[in-house]
Amino acid sequence: MTTASTSPRPVIVWFRDDLRLSDNPALTDAMRRGAPVLAAYVFDEESPDVRPPGGASRWWLHHSLSALERGLAARGGRLAIFRGAGAETIVGLAKAADAACVVWNRRYGAAERQVDSAAKAALRSAGREAESFNAALLREPWEVKSRAGAPMKVFTPFWKAAQALGEPAAPTPAPARMPGLDGRWPGEIPLAALDLLPTRPDWAGGLRATWKPGEDGARERLSAFLDEDLRGYAARRDRPDLPGTSRLSPHLRFGEISPRQVWHAAHAAALSAERPPSSTDLTKFLAELGWREFSYHLLFHNPDLATRNYQPRFDAMPWRDDAAALEAWRRGRTGYPFVDAGMRQLWETGWMHNRTRMVAASFLIKHLLIDWRVGEAWFWDTLVDADPASNAASWQWVAGSGADAAPYYRIFNPVLQGEKLDPAGDYVRRFVPELADLPPDAIHRPWSAGPGLLAGIASKRGYPGPIVDHDAARARALAALAATREPD
Ligand code: FAD
């Protein structure tokens, strides 16, 4: 297909991690040009070092692309989908469409940046315009720096410096109409041909029951959070048994909503609500967006954040290979109910509460002494919000190997964490039904239940005893850390 020579040459909007029509600077720029807009998506598993999405992300991506297709169709447009190496495919499409210009929103992983620079160079050398924008972050990673102009390594000064740059720009609305071009382009395929959904077996029932991917779903989630849970957020955010957090993470990950939209909507809600949230609620919530920004800052300045210890001292950790323990952790069968509830929440819904992410990750790294990268890879495969920056930075944070990380020697006690943050045991009861009959004082330590109850759990319901003893595991973890110390 080619465009008629009399009509203006089209502008291609290359969608990637920005699957939305509102507050999308690349799209806004394309519309401003007044030329026909060609919306394109390239599923790229071919460019070197681009990390393929995990299973849960593939599921989300399918539905998010489907929602974007519907959003475009409602405005008279359509999404052209391709599979291939990102730069080559988009450069080929620009040639086929004789596009005057290609616009996109930036990505921050090293491999993706490589793809984007190659595309920009090839497009420009073919006489086309190529422009990129910031859609994913409140501030570009290079805008926030220390007084000396260096990358930041500690969260609090980072977030202070980011906020000192002023309010993020106000979000822009979605275009009312954006007629696309008729016909099909060479290499174009239907969404289903990307084969992103699980079939044999179809394990996505829990995901379907939990989430509504897409821009409308993101907007609804944000409104519900602002109406119901921003007030009280600071006090409730650590309680996995309560619906106290926004659950916006997968929507942010796929760019169905922008952090600018969330930032402005949270401020507006705080001003207009009848029963407004406290300033601590608002500050705390915005600081979580700040952690997301900090993770991207770290990724940008440390491209191998998912594979290399930020603190090289951890290269000497004597990690263990223990396939049986790893499998027990993955399946939520460690015998520690709070950890198991988190791991099963992940398996069932593709998401885990932040607090149980911390405790479950710590359990793998410290109680089982298994390399944090093994856990990072499991989360990458199973989280619907699996994020190249936040997942890597958070795993390194828990391991103690990261920037501004929790010290390694602070080892969570999964029993005490459960008793404190899931006091009635409702969270465990929901995800570990074998323990549903236990009273609150035994649910986080089933081994302390009376012999009758315990026998019932073990024999009839098959819940395992603890796979490691907490005190022994703690001592082993501390000894492992001591072994990494440089000799005096
Ligand atoms: P809210 O509390 O409502 O926070 C609002 C938003 O802020 C979130 O949607 C998220 O985008 C961001 N945010 C919150 N906490 C963090 C944080 N600690 N670091 C970075 N951003 C944050 N988050 C991901 O988005 N993707 C991941 O792959 C990911 N992996 C993690 C792995 C581990 C081991 C740990 C401990 C944390 C991980 N997190 C990750 C961070 C955090 O757990 C989730 O962002 C949060 O639980 C999402 O829930 P929410 O949207 O309800 O968060």
UniProtKB/TrEMBL annotation:
<keyword id="KW-0285">Flavoprotein</keyword>
<dbReference type="Pfam" id="PF03441">
    <property type="entry name" value="FAD_binding_7"/>
</dbReference>
<dbReference type="InterPro" id="IPR036155">
    <property type="entry name" value="Crypto/Photolyase_N_sf"/>
</dbReference>
<protein>
    <submittedName>
        <fullName>DNA photolyase family protein</fullName>
    </submittedName>
</protein>
<keyword id="KW-0157">Chromophore</keyword>
<dbReference type="InterPro" id="IPR005101">
    <property type="entry name" value="Cryptochr/Photolyase_FAD-bd"/>
</dbReference>
<dbReference type="InterPro" id="IPR014729">
    <property type="entry name" value="Rossmann-like_a/b/a_fold"/>
</dbReference>
<keyword id="KW-0274">FAD</keyword>
<dbReference type="InterPro" id="IPR006050">
    <property type="entry name" value="DNA_photolyase_N"/>
</dbReference>
<dbReference type="InterPro" id="IPR036134">
    <property type="entry name" value="Crypto/Photolyase_FAD-like_sf"/>
</dbReference>
<feature type="domain" description="Photolyase/cryptochrome alpha/beta">
    <location>
        <begin position="9"/>
        <end position="138"/>
    </location>
</feature>
<dbReference type="Pfam" id="PF00875">
    <property type="entry name" value="DNA_photolyase"/>
</dbReference>
<dbReference type="InterPro" id="IPR002081">
    <property type="entry name" value="Cryptochrome/DNA_photolyase_1"/>
</dbReference>
<comment type="similarity">
    <text>Belongs to the DNA photolyase family.</text>
</comment>
<dbReference type="InterPro" id="IPR018394">
    <property type="entry name" value="DNA_photolyase_1_CS_C"/>
</dbReference>
